[in-house]
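Sequence in, structure out. First:
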Amino acid sequence: MPPTTRAPTPTTPAEQIEPKLPSRGGKTRDLTKEDFSQQSAIYLRPKAQFDTLVALPDSADRK
């Protein structure tokens, strides 16, 4: 019997929220802070996310 492939399980709140967003004319609207609040999650702007901060060089202004 061949192995069964399944879609990966969403791991981040954004991956769980995006498929449920309304679309109009084939375009899905952008995520908002309210989308995260409804899921009891915190929205962080991309420049405040961990991966971005860790990638900053030591000489970067970290204010």
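Second:
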Amino acid sequence: MANPWTGEVALTIDGEQRVLKLTLGALAELERELGTGTLVELVQRFEGGAYSSGDVLALIVAGLRGGGANVTRADLLSAEIEGGPMHGARAAAELLARAFMVPGQA
């Protein structure tokens, strides 16, 4: 079960519910992989609806790694996300928002 107060998001991948979390290390890896100047740019892309499927995949991988899974981008290329790509995108956006949310914020 994911704990939203600690920044966790649940996502079912290949029939298994997984817990995603963006730790500082996961955020650093994400920043390096995406090659963006800052994570603020990534947040702005999500807020503006201008994110790519690569952004979503990178966020899910980073979240899984932050949640303790030893996965790579290649591991998820053929994975089945329950609810489809749009559900994955919503989970990625929620994960990103929770990483920077102060408990009690809406």
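Remark: The radius of gyration is 13 Å.
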